[in-house]
Amino acid sequence: MELFTPDFGLVLWMFIAFLVLFLALAFFAWPIIVRSLEKRADLIDKGVEYAQDAKAQLDNARAEAQKYISEAQKQQAEILRDAAKMKTQIIEEARREASDEAKKVMDAAKLSIEQSRKEAELQFRNEVSKFSIDIAEKMVRKQMSSDSAQSELVNKLLDEIEKN
Prior knowledge:
By secondary structure, the protein is mostly helical. Helices cover 93% and strands 0% of the residues.
């Protein structure tokens, strides 16, 4: 039972040993421990600050990437609208050119037909006049068998020429 009730001397020496140990630790060990704890706290604070900076940079990068994506989508939509406009313009231009070309071909065909018709009409007139002259010549020969009829016709034609 002596362990449960120590003597005064034992308690005094234990207190002195504790006090020496405490003072030795306080002067030599505690500053080192405190410095290492402060370094560790600084390191942790720097790590947290670095993580916050990295998170902020990541958020900025995400926002910038989203901005670029939205700009690219806008440009894509604009390019598609322009392509659709160009498509309709090209189709309209092709139709207009085809219509113009068809009109030119039709005009050329009409001109060619008109020219052919005029040539045929001229040829027909020439043929008709040739036949008329042949018929008139035959009729005049038949009727002009006498000299008096011939001189009467010549005088009549001369009178008509003088009037004109």
